[in-house]
Write a structure and sequence with these properties.
- The complex is a heterodimer of chains A (536) and B (368).
- Chain A is α+β, with helices and mostly antiparallel strands.
- Chain A has 3 domains: 142 residues, DNA ligase, ATP-dependent, N-terminal domain (DNA ligase i, domain 1, Orthogonal Bundle), CATH 1.10.3260; 207 residues, D-amino Acid Aminotransferase, Chain A, domain 1 (2-Layer Sandwich); 120 residues, Nucleic acid-binding proteins (OB fold (Dihydrolipoamide Acetyltransferase, E2P), Beta Barrel).
- Chain A is built from 20 helices and 23 strands.
- In chain A, the strands form 5 sheets. In chain A, strands 4, 5, 6, 7, 8, 9 and 10 form a 7-stranded mixed sheet that branches.
- Chain A is globular, with a radius of gyration of 26 Å.
- Chain B has 368 residues and is an alpha/beta fold.
- Helices cover 24% and strands 23% of the residues of chain B.
- Chain B is globular, with a radius of gyration of 20 Å.
- Classes of the chains: A alpha+beta (536), B alpha/beta (368).
- The interface between A and B is medium-sized, with 35 and 25 residues.
Chain lengths: 536, 368
Amino acid sequence: MRAFAQLFLSLDETNKTNEKVRVLKDYFLSVPDTDKMHMLALFTGRKPKRPINSTLIRTWAMELSHIPVWLFEESYQVVGDLAETISLLLPQNTISNSKTLTEWIAEINTVGARTEEEKKQWLIESWGMQDSQEKFVFNKVLTGGFRVGVSQNLVIKALADISKLDAATLTHRIMGNWMPEDYTFDQLIAEQGASDDISRPYPFFLAYPIQETSEKQKSPEELHGSLGDAAEWQAEWKWDGIRAQMIKRDGKIFIWSRGEDLATEKFPELHPFLNALPDGTVLDGEILSFQNGQPLPFNVLQTRIGRKNLSKKILEEGPVAVIAYDCLEYGGEDIRNKTQVERRAILEQLQQETDEPEIFRISELINFSDWDELAEIRTRSRSMIAEGIMLKRKSAHYQVGRRRGDWWKWKIDPLSVDAVMIYAQKGHGRRADLYTDYTFAVWDGDKLVPFAKAYSGLTDEEIRKVDNFVKRNTLEKFGPVRTVKPQLVFEIGFEGINRSTRHKSGIALRFPRILRWRMDKPMEEADTIETLRGML
Amino acid sequence: MAKKPLLEFTDRGIYCAQGLFYIDPWLPVDDAVITHAHSDHARMGNKRYLAHHYSEQVLRYRLGADIQLQTVEYGETVMKNGVEISLFPAGHVIGSAQVRLSYKGEVWVVSGDYKVEDDGISTPFEPVRCHHFISECTFGMPVYKWKAQTDTFNEINTWWRQNAENNVATVIVGYSLGKAQRVLQNLDLSIGKVYTHGVIENTNEALRRNGIILNPTERITPLTTKEEVRKGIIIAPPSSVGTPWMRRFGPYDFGYCSGWMSIRGAKKRRAADRGFVLSDHADWDGLISAIDATGCEKVYLTHGYTASFSRYLSEIGFDAHEVHTLYGGDENEEEPKADPVGDDSSEVKISDLSTAADIGEAKEEGLI
């Protein structure tokens, strides 16, 4: 695993894209094929099952490092990463090991079935032969929190360079339901797609935002300037649901989420129409909860995603349907290189043939003759329970990943209020040991009621200043949370607002984040709970 | 009536009422004993200063050539109103000292900043027996454990050599007093020449005037070309990161030297190409062994993780107390500014600086 640990370190040690690709190539060229596949699995989110729960791992780490529980917890606050905290606290070793990544993962996969005592012995022995970088990476795999600071695109690029296959093909081949134990490197880079995995989805095509910051409104003239003639574009509502790819092949159906989770069983309502599709069909669309033919806000769907078992009650309260907007495979043929208009025609035909038009819906095209008219229509997004408008060039192919040019999302501005920061907590990762997670409140009479937590939207420089403020203006400490002197005002943006019985304020926000620091506003001028209720 | 302690923590600094002097005060006073010349410990505006001989030229350079300054050697004694003052090596930077006070058989020691590892250039730390020990704890958490500096310097030299082979300039960033000279003295000069930012070279010159022998350096001037520094290494202060001054030497690889670099998140935040774990402060084990070696009855923790560290010390049997001070200017504040856009980026407005320490540092780096 030394090579893998070194890979991780080397990727950390550079910010240059070319250098990262070089490091990845060096790794691929220096390790056995099975290690390559295990690395790919880990880098694309296919982690082994957790063999030991993290409470036990913590307990044994504390025992070995001879520190009390509270100090372990505070160390974790400082480091912001459990795997790293443990690797820093454990004693240093002089013994080393020469096990490969494949061998370590095989051990991790078998130890899960052993007794607690055996697990402990195995873990302590393993830590005892790893240097601190290996320990860190090993803990990362073990605790399941494996994320790397390198995009999948770079891994694909390195792989493409050494295999001479093109990036789009490789991106497709590493999608879906494979395990490193039974998918070989030879299969991955074989000249002919030797793939017989009928569940494999296509890489999603993702849109770029048309206005990358919410403050800069694009005018119809600017749209014309950058996108050209409105007649070359089709427009649809941007639905706020779960992006999904639905597959029917060889009589079997598969539903994939954007995060490459196989979610077939989560959406039983969709099964009848999918089963009725002709074999060799792949659809792209949005899954939403519906009631009386109307889409429901995202939070209804959200309660359902979290559940392990779908109770009858949940199925009745938030029945789902799909709004389809693209077709990627038809008659067993990959049609991603047909134009948007051609694919749309096939999709429409499929939808007309369904017996379940209430479940297999189609994303209606918006009629518009110029950008002015579309800008006007966009203002009605919220009443459509939509997040804005999607623009797709009529000649667009279905591409791989996020690409500029042919698909754009034109979201509406978020709702916003001015709120006072009242609690702060330290962040994780690169925000470790800095107060970056804040709770915000609005006025209810002369009291401040908390209504939202947010931890993004400030620049590093602003974070440093707020962190400094928090450290100097702490009123009380509750574990990791500090009560802060109410003073700083921030503009909080959010995509939606709903009633909630779980929150003190009686409301729940969708995707709250900090839009900006209102240094100009005294806290007395922050918004009130009535303002928020008025938005319901 | 309870006896008044020899040292008190006041809003001007650590005060000795019996001897009528302050140690590292942060507001102007008549008599200031200075542990070391970093801007959060040695501030302007005091009437009289007392410091170690090796700090003299740096203090005069930073605070003014005409300051009224008395210097002493380590172990030498100065009496003030019956209080015996002497300085002992703190190993933090050249000329850094712990201040030992003795009055009627009671001994207090103020650590200033310190590290226990011998860096080969500062006089090595010496434990001093005392009843009361006032200690820093910048890195008072068990996740901070330094490796031997030879390991870190091997990494730095290997990295420099690689860059030189690839024809990429090497920039290494560290605080101008301390880290800069520590790095300078441990570079492998067979690889190339050492170039310095003006602020660092000013400090080097002050130290050379003080008789300290440093490796040869070349000051970077507007005439220095990027071609000539390509095989060399540039030592620069944190405030120069991302400024046009640094960018003109591109392509370069930049490395950051600090104790904070041992945490991945902190390293990422600085967006350095390389982070080297190198600190002029004691690590967790260093702090505990140093405190233990004083044999003190009471220990007071000033800047750093004071709350956690004093709690831990109490649990393992020390009589430990947390004290609020305004120190913590060097490693705490040494974050480089985010990559600026405009060309006047090296300008810092006084209103942007939140503490006196910030202003001190900005001034020292020649930004205001």
